[in-house]
């Protein structure tokens, strides 16, 4: 445990560093039983607790509670089992995403969900955020790769959800847990689905004059019935940042680049690869590079995977936004983001999973210049409104956490939110698991959603708000 005030400050934020709260205590359980004991102690003392994996979350999900215990899983990093015959891996929650693939590769398997943070983020964090990655277009998000979990429920009991075999009978409680952002308990063991390494992988980098052309190429590829393992786009500003940071050597003068990767049986990949190349040219690609070997493929990906951090080279501060739109709306939404950027005098770099319409606009600002942070916040919020307007979502993969709770009522009705609260209350009637996240205001479980619409005594006292 950490109790020293200075040391506690190490854990005051996650990857979204502008929210900071120093926790009252940090605990590092080594086992599920220790983790359960920590939660039970919290329950006995009616103290809130927040789970934390590697702290790379970008929505403030692992932001501590000032009067609460932060439960860090970094001492739970054992890969218990790699079972290629069952296509399963059993891991502790602190295990780093990429380590699962490293452990499974000698047997001819890998773990498909690949967030760009995969070298450092934990499986427990991935499960809680239902994380995605470049290759989730073809293979699905974390939820498609988690078949079972042991969790410490918010009352401190150890519970198993799902199992090793697919389709456990009864309600899909595992489905509810995945993506619940630490509000339904703490995962202490996760059973993952492993995927067979593909026979062939081929990657191309296509340069276009505009994001319109690159967006059109993306739609054309999918419309042709090809489902690439990944289709990633970067615009001119994102390319400039990546060049400054990692010298990835993308074609000069490109207004947008697409990275398209196909994998699967060699004959299928070869046939589809020709189609993809032709469709990119038809959509206006002025240069196409095909990775000759693993080293060149890694160079293509280096620019993309380093893009978030690379933006630090061209701007002292930036907001990483995360939203979803229907893929076909890409060109129009990107144009409107450009218009917002011009209107507010705030630069926006775009780097995103184009194949599934998951945008990551990076809104650049300088906190030292008065008013810039506010303008960046305005543009960032307006982009989320655009996503909703086009029938998309306020988050694709980074979660709601602390940061986006305020946007939930823009996307969901009161009844929707009440129903979600009923699920949360069923797991956590005392409201101790990661309180204050996901939902705009804390609702107490004593209040039955949808019934007590009148003022609550705590609301009247200004302590809580009923929505
Ligand atoms: C450079 C960079 C690139 C990124 N790229 C991607 C990307 O491509 N795709 C993507 O989806 N995300 C991405 N992210 C976001 C982040 O890495 C993911 O959300 C990741 O899953 C968080 O894992 P973590 O271990 O850091 O979790 P944390 O940040 O520690 O926690 C995240 C949430 O999970 C909860 N949690 C953690 N462990 C547990 C547990 N054992 N049981 C229950 N709840 C738990 C926390 O309470 C919190 O709500 C990126 C982040 C960075 C910094």
Estimate percent helicity: 25-40%
Task: Bin the strand percentage.
Answer: 15-25%
Oligomer: single chain
Structural Rg: 23 Å
| Total count of helical runs of at least 4 residues | 16
Give the distance, in angstroms, between the N- and C-terminal Cα atoms: 37 Å
Overall SS class? alpha+beta
Anisotropy-based shape = globular
How would you describe this structure to a colleague?
The protein is of the alpha+beta class and 467 residues long. The chain has 16 helices and 19 strands. The protein has helices at residues 5-8, 32-45, 97-104, 123-129, 136-139, 173-177, 211-223, 236-246, 266-282, 294-305, 307-310, 330-344, 372-389, 408-411, 414-427, 457-460; strands at 25-27, 49-52, 69-72, 79-83, 88-91, 109-110, 146-152, 158-162, 186-193, 195-196, 200-208, 230-235, 256-264, 287-290, 317-320, 323-324, 348-353, 358-359, 361-365. Helix 7 (211-223) runs antiparallel to helix 12 (330-344). Flavin-adenine dinucleotide (FAD) binds next to strand 2, helix 4, strand 9 and helix 11.
């Amino acid at each position: 445990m950490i109790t020293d005030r200075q040391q506690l400050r190490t854990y005051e934020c996650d990857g979204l560093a502008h929210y900071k709260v120093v926790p009252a205590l940090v605990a590092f359980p080594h086992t599920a039983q220790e983790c359960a004991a920590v939660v039970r102690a919290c329950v006995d003392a009616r103290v809130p607790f927040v789970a934390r994996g590697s702290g790379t979350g970008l929505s403030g999900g692992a932001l501590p509670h000032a009067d609460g215990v932060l439960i860090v899983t970094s001492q739970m990093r054992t890969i218990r089992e790699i079972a290629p015959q069952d296509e399963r891996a059993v891991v502790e929650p602190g295990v780093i995403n990429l380590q699962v693939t490293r452990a499974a590769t000698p047997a001819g398997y890998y773990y498909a969900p690949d967030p760009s943070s995969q070298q450092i983020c934990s499986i427990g964090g991935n499960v809680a955020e239902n994380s995605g990655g470049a290759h989730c277009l073809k293979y699905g998000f974390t939820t498609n790769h988690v078949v079972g979990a042991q969790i410490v429920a918010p009352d401190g009991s150890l519970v198993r959800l799902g199992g090793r075999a697919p389709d456990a009978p009864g309600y899909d409680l595992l489905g509810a847990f995945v993506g619940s952002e630490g509000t339904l308990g703490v995962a202490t063991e996760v059973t993952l689905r492993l995927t067979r390494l593909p026979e062939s992988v081929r990657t191309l980098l296509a340069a276009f004059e505009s994001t319109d052309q690159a967006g059109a190429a993306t739609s054309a590829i999918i419309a042709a019935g090809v489902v690439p393992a990944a289709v990633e786009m970067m615009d001119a500003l994102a390319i400039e940042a990546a060049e400054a940071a990692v010298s990835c050597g993308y074609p000069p003068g490109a207004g947008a680049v697409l990275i398209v990767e196909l994998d699967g049986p060699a004959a299928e990949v070869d046939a589809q690869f020709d189609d993809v190349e032709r469709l990119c040219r038809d959509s206006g690609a002025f240069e196409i590079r095909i990775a000759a070997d693993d080293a060149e493929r890694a160079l293509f990906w280096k620019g993309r995977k380093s893009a978030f951090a690379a933006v630090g080279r061209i701007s002292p501060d930036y907001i990483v936004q995360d939203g979803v739109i229907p893929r076909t709306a890409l060109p129009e939404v990107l144009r409107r983001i450009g218009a917002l950027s011009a209107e507010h005098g705030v630069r926006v770099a775009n780097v995103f999973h184009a194949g599934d319409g998951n945008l990551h606009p990076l809104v650049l600002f300088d906190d030292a210049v008065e008013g810039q942070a506010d303008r960046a916040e305005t543009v960032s919020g307006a982009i989320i409104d655009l996503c909703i307007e086009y029938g998309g979502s306020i988050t694709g993969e980074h979660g709601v956490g602390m940061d986006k709770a305020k946007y939930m009522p823009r996307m969901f009705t009161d009844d929707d939110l009440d129903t979600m609260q009923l699920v949360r209350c069923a797991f956590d009637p005392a409201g101790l698991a990661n309180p204050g996240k996901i939902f705009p205001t804390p609702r107490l479980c004593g209040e039955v959603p949808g019934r007590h619409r009148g003022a609550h005594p705590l609301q009247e006292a200004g302590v809580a708000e009923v929505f």
